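Retry 2 of 3 after timeout on previous attempt. Resubmitting structure tokens to design endpoint.
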């Protein structure tokens, strides 16, 4: 009887499943991880977007209420006198801190550029003013209250030479400033008084430290914006950044960034800084002004009738 040599069947693994171990595909694993990460980010962005939309809707509603009060002389749609309603506690703070403003803005001016300098006055303010004066150009200085003491003459020069003064807070401490609506008003009022005591001017415009919507004020910005609008102040964000706050920013880069931003932006409001350690800003400014005027632009100061540029998170 012939001997039969049978072949062992292989089922694809050890034991009852074959003669080899199945290897996991690294590419498949990486692809799965990437897909999971993308899905997680998308979900987070959707949730964040929804929250921002809800917050912005609240801002819009409050702005409409303020506008309605301005146009109706303090009477709401139902005919009741708004003055008879119970004010919020923070609305009773600093009653003198108000501005008469109609809420109307002029038509945008073609070729007008609004250079703005945050955080001064500083050791660089005089050089900035010199560059502007040499070329007959105007700008806006959003000053920080804590920097005013000892620099009162610089604020007076800003006013005397026809530039605009605005408030950029007092402490420039974001956590402190945005701790509550009351904290914001206290900080703003300190800067408001410091500017007046330095040069006899009560500013009517301001720029939020960090911009109107930032990581520190997300919980309170709708109420703060509505309250400042109710008091008649106008705030300005920016749509062109010079990038001079970046570490190691070079004058040539700042000039190129500003010029490119201005030529590509309608109604450009440019963010620059007046800080002692930002020598590149001073170095770049003459070239910025010369290049812009060569392109037919001119630098003007902001006034409360200039249409604001504000951040929009819809």
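Retry 2 succeeded. Sequence:
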């Amino acid at each position: 009887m012939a001997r039969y040599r049978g072949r062992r069947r292989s089922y694809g693994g050890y034991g009852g499943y074959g003669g080899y171990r199945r290897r996991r595909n690294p590419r498949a694993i990486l692809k799965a991880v990437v897909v999971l990460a993308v899905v997680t980010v998308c979900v987070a962005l959707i949730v964040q977007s929804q929250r921002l939309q809800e917050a912005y809707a609240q801002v819009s509603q409050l702005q409409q209420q303020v506008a309605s009060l301005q146009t109706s002389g303090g009477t709401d749609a139902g005919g009741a006198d708004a003055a008879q309603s119970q004010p919020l506690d923070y609305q009773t703070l600093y009653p003198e801190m108000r501005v008469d403003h109609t809420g109307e803005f002029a038509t945008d001016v073609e070729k007008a550029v609004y250079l703005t300098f945050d955080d001064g006055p500083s050791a660089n303010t005089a050089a900035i003013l010199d560059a502007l004066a040499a070329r007959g150009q105007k700008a806006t200085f959003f000053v920080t209250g804590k920097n005013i003491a000892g620099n009162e003459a610089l604020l007076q020069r800003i006013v005397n030479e026809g530039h605009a003064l605005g408030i950029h807070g007092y402490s420039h401490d974001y956590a402190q400033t945005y701790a509550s609506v009351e904290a914001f008003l206290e900080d703003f009022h300190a800067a408001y008084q410091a500017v007046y005591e330095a040069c006899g001017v009560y500013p009517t415009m301001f720029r939020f430290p960090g911009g109107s919507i930032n990581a520190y004020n997300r919980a309170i910005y709708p109420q703060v914006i509505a309250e400042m609008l109710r008091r008649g102040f106008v705030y300005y964000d920016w749509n062109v950044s010079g990038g001079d706050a970046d570490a190691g920013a070079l004058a040539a880069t700042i000039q190129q960034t500003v010029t490119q931003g201005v030529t590509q932006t309608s109604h450009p409001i440019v963010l620059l800084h007046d800080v002692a350690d930002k020598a590149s800003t001073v170095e770049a400014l003459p070239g910025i002004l010369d290049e812009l005027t060569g392109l037919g632009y001119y630098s003007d100061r902001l006034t409360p009738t200039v249409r604001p540029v504000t951040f929009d998170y819809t």
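Attempt log closed. Residues 1-21, 69-84 have pLDDT under 50 and may be disordered.
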